[in-house]
Design brief:
It is built from 21 helices and 30 strands. The protein is 33% helix and 23% strand. A hairpin with a 2-residue loop joins strand 3 and strand 4. The protein has 5 domains: 7-108, GIY-YIG endonuclease (3-Layer(aba) Sandwich); 118-127 and 135-186; 203-378, 3-Layer(aba) Sandwich (Rossmann fold), CATH 3.40.50.300; 389-430 and 490-628, Rossmann fold; 636-729, Alpha-Beta Plaits. It has a 7-stranded parallel sheet with strand order 11-12-10-13-14-9-15, sandwiched between helices. Strands 16-26-25-17-24-23 form a 6-stranded parallel sheet, sandwiched between helices. It has a 5-stranded antiparallel sheet with strand order 2-1-4-3-5. The radius of gyration is 28 Å and the shape is globular. The model has no long low-confidence stretch (mean pLDDT 91). Bound molecules: adenosine-5'-diphosphate and zinc ion (2 copies). One zinc ion (ZN) binds at residues 446, 448-449, 451, 464, 466-467, 469. The site of one zinc ion has 8 residues, from loops.
Length: 735
């Protein structure tokens, strides 16, 4: 009989929502950072080995052997494990789930790492004369063949093709079916393209690059540069230097799908194939990218928030573009901030961290003022572009048509007639935000939320923007049986319909979540804008994010008033950022830009200051207000949220959490402030009643020291089965 393999006791973080670790027996080849398949409860789970040869509190005879060791080499280095362990502890989230989050789905499910090689395509047989003719009518197929013909002999990677053509799955499939191209695995060290030269840096750009690279070890910098001031050129120059010195660069952006030009620009200017962790990657590609990065094979990795977890053994520079953007914060499950984790990672890797924005968050500005970040300024627009001229339009007594004032319509007419493009911003999709009865005042409510249903005329539906509920549009009022039901207020759909009549000669493209649901449709629309075939761009905040539209000379914001009086203490900061970002889309090339802001509060001090003195001055003022009120960044918060089908259950839980918290805070003398229990701003959402408790302390370490033991006590509460609760450390939304 063969002797059993040697078994050693190991400690494992299991991919399960449990705040504890488990001990097992594993083969002698087990090492920290490898995955194992484990018997767990009635079934099996995947986990990551954290420590080997441990001294278990359980008797060894009671430890179960792992079913299978899944890796021959560790997936996580000890440094990765330490970083992720830190993140789990800081955000009070189970380590197993944190490790699972850090892995691409394929590996998370216990599948083997894919074989090294890039999925790519090469030319196969030349087209027959009939195929030739068919190609003439299929411009995308034709374009793709040309790319392959002119590219490297070995072929081009799928990621490369996508970076140049946008989503091209169907095109590839069609060509492969005709036998014109074939799939293959490309070697990882793709032939490098030659780097395209860039513009000569201006003095402030050059100084910024010198400062970023000149520091020793960990070195956080805040690059505050107005829109169009050439921040990306600074990223490029710093990246190039780090890559040439053999380092890896990680670039985080809010949304890759929205900014294919950024990816392109990095590829062309650095002469390399960036590893793009795109949401359109399939699971295999994603796993492959992850493995490549972790082997140190990719010089530049570009991704959104979750890319912060990509292992990079030679990390030499971390860049976060649009660092103020909310998307860097994960809002459910493992609620981390990629920006804050970037700083932790930079410290561990002893490398510079560059946060860039035209509208830095108050947190980052505060850090700069405290001397924790080096502040780098770019105060001029690059090249010939001039800062736009901003003007408030008082619409209190203006006769609006679909939300547009006569003054705005005139301005649009002039710009369009002069062959320019116009961008209209309205942060409300749908036709109208409510459906109202003109006889009795009834307003269509969402049956599951404390919210109104929005009218969507194109789909002939009422829709709840909070829970997704869809309803038929009633033909009479359920309260008074009246027939006079109509939409009230203006959404993008309505503006679009109006513009189609008013400016029939000028094609208009609408960009919001409804109009860009189909994959690739956003890219197509943006392409139309860049090529100039679309003359009016209308959209929600999807438009605010870092796009470069050189022919836009007039930007108008149809309604900024909602943002002026938001209940969240961050509402004004957000409004100032949004307004500045949207305004920054105007006049980015030679043609000067103009910004019109429609408001019913033309004397609002914040609006005035923003226009007269700019975002920086406004942020200073907001920071002072925060200081006086002792709000973040002058204090630190954590938010306990609970929801249940019955309001009393959520309330009782949070009440109990408060009692336990007060007792514990006293015992540890941590001086934690508790605000609540209080209902969430929208108390009922998707049929669940929501309560919360806000914790605040002027000391981050004290808050941290409190949270661990408090959560242990909360876990011991026997809560009703369907009650859910969570903790959000450094919450960005506290209502
Ligand atoms: P930001 O990222 O700050 O919005 P970009 O880096 O995209 O700005 O630059 C805006 C435009 O100015 C781009 O078209 C870019 O090519 C150009 N630009 C940037 N730096 C320079 C420079 N030093 N000289 C000339 N043009 C520049
Ligand atoms: Zn009615
Ligand atoms: Zn709803």
């Amino acid at each position: 009989m063969p002797s059993p393999p040697p078994q050693i006791p190991v400690r494992i973080a299991v991919f399960a929502p449990l705040r504890r670790l488990f001990d097992y027996l594993a083969p002698g080849s087990a090492r920290p950072g490898m995955r194992a398949l484990l018997p767990f409860g009635q079934g099996q789970r995947v986990g990551v080995i954290l420590q080997v040869d441990i001294r278990s509190e359980l008797d060894e005879s009671r430890l179960k052997p792992v079913r299978q060791l899944l890796d021959a080499e560790p997936l996580f280095s000890s440094d990765d494990l330490a970083f992720l362990g830190w993140a789990a502890a800081y955000y009070q989230h189970p380590l197993g789930e944190v490790l699972a989050t850090a892995l691409p789905a394929l590996l998370r499910r216990g599948k083997p790492p894919p074989p090294a090689g890039l999925e790519g395509w090469a030319l196969h047989s030349p087209p027959s004369p009939t195929q030739q003719q068919a190609l003439a009518r299929a411009p995308r197929q034709h374009q793709l063949l040309e790319l392959l013909r002119d590219g490297p002999k070995a072929g081009l990677s799928q990621a490369d093709l996508r970076a140049r053509l946008g989503p091209c799955g169907p095109v590839l499939k069609a060509l492969a079916e005709k036998g014109l191209i074939r799939p293959l695995l490309l070697p990882l060290d793709l032939p490098r393209q030659t780097a395209e030269p860039g513009p000569e840096l201006m003095a402030q750009q050059r100084q910024a690059v010198e400062q970023i690279l000149g520091g020793q070890g960990f070195h956080p910098c805040l690059l505050h540069g107005i829109t169009g001031s050439g921040k990306t050129e600074v990223y490029l120059a710093a990246s190039r230097a780090v890559i040439q010195a053999g380092g890896q660069v990680l670039v985080l952006v809010p949304e890759i799908a929205l900014t294919p030009q950024t990816t392109e620009r990095f590829a062309r200017r650095l002469g390399l194939t960036p590893l793009v962790l795109h949401s359109a990657l399939n699971e295999r590609e994603r796993a492959l990218a992850w493995i490549q990065a972790s082997r140190g094979e990719a010089a530049l990795v570009l991704g959104t928030r979750s890319a912060i977890f990509t292992p990079l053994p030679r990390l030499g520079l971390l860049i976060l573009d649009e660092e103020h953007d909310l998307s860097f914060k994960q809002q459910d499950g493992f609620r981390y901030s990629a920006r804050d984790l970037a700083l932790v990672r930079g410290r561990r890797a002893a490398c510079p961290v560059l946060l860039g924005s035209a509208t830095p968050s108050l947190e980052s500005l505060h850090n700069a003022r405290q001397g924790r970040f080096t502040l780098l300024r770019l105060e001029q627009r690059a090249g010939a572009a001039q800062p736009p001229q901003v003007q408030l339009l008082d619409i209190r007594s203006a006769p609006l048509q679909a939300g547009l004032s006569p003054a705005l319509l005139d301005a649009m007419q002039r710009e369009l007639a002069a062959d320019n493009q116009v961008l209209l911003f309205l942060n409300r999709r749908g036709y109208a935000p409510v459906l109202i009865c003109h006889d009795c005042g009834w307003i269509a409510p969402c049956p599951h939320c404390d919210a109104r249903l929005c009218l969507h005329l194109a789909e002939q539906r009422l829709s709840c923007h909070h829970c997704g509920q869809l309803r038929r549009i009633p033909d009479h009022c359920p309260a008074c049986q009246g027939q006079r039901l109509s939409g009230h207020g203006v959404g993008t759909e309505q503006v679009e319909a109006f513009l189609a009549q008013r400016f029939a000669a000028f094609p208009c493209v609408r960009i919001d979540r409804d109009s860009t649901r189909r994959q690739g449709s956003l890219q197509k629309k943006l392409e139309g804008v860049r090529q100039g075939s679309q003359r009016i761009l209308l959209g929600t905040q999807m438009l605010a994010k870092g796009h470069d539209f050189p022919q836009v000379t007039l930007v108008a914001m149809l309604d900024v008033d909602q943002g002026l009086f938001g209940a969240d203490f961050r509402a004004t900061e957000r409004m100032a950022q949004l307004l500045t970002q949207v305004a920054g889309r105007a006049g980015r090339a030679e043609r000067p830009g103009r910004v019109l802001i429609q408001t019913r509060y033309p004397d609002h001090p914040l609006l005035r200051q923003l226009i007269e003195q700019g975002y920086g001055a406004c942020a200073e003022e907001l920071l002072q207000e925060r200081q006086q009120a002792q709000l973040p960044p002058f204090s630190h918060q954590a938010l306990l949220r609970a929801d249940a089908l019955q309001a009393e259950q959520a309330e009782a839980f949070v009440q109990q959490a408060l009692a336990l918290g007060q007792e514990l805070s006293q015992k540890l003398s941590q001086g934690i402030e508790f605000w609540g229990p209080a209902p969430a701003a929208m108390e009922r959402r998707a049929g669940r009643h929501r309560q919360q408790l806000l914790l605040q302390s002027t000391s981050r370490p004290r808050l941290q020291a409190f949270l661990g033991p408090w959560l242990e006590r909360l876990e011991a509460i026997k809560a009703p089965a369907r009650l859910r609760w969570s903790i959000d450390v450094d919450p960005l939304e506290t209502l």
